[in-house]
Amino acid sequence: MIREDEVFYIGYISKARGIRGEVELLFTDDAFDRGAAEYIVLDMDGIFVPFFWEEYRFKNNDTAIFKIEGVNTEPEARRLVGHRVYYPLSALPAAADDGKLDSWKAFIGFNVVDEKGVPIGRVDSVDDSSQNILLYLTAPDGREVIIPLHEDFIVECSVAKRTLCLDLPEGLLNVNS
Asked: What is the CA radius of gyration of the chain?
């Protein structure tokens, strides 16, 4: 059984494509390019299920078209649409922890802690549509937390552990309380 701490979020199935049962995966992380897993993991109603692919091809920088084993028709492919896609941490090379990411959206799925190691939350989405980058987190108590992100706030980033340590200005987390 695959556990949540063994995988991390890399995108979602955005739509079915064609009559062969292909699906489009919209990526939020480039781990698939760096990793060596022969499968992706889908969250199927809270259960992490591995899906092996027969082939894939990139449509553009953010989207790939996958032909998944056992999914051979359009109706079968449509059942996967909207499901979150994860990647196994064990498939990443050890050198992946250089702290460098290709985009701000790659922080989706990271656990955020303060400089003392106290959990702030898990990144659900990133708004990078303007110069002001915003992280949308789910706090340990379940509430939504929005953090403006600046490179000066980042103390440490571990790609392998999927953690982001931030030194935030005092009172920032209490702005919307």
From this structure: 17
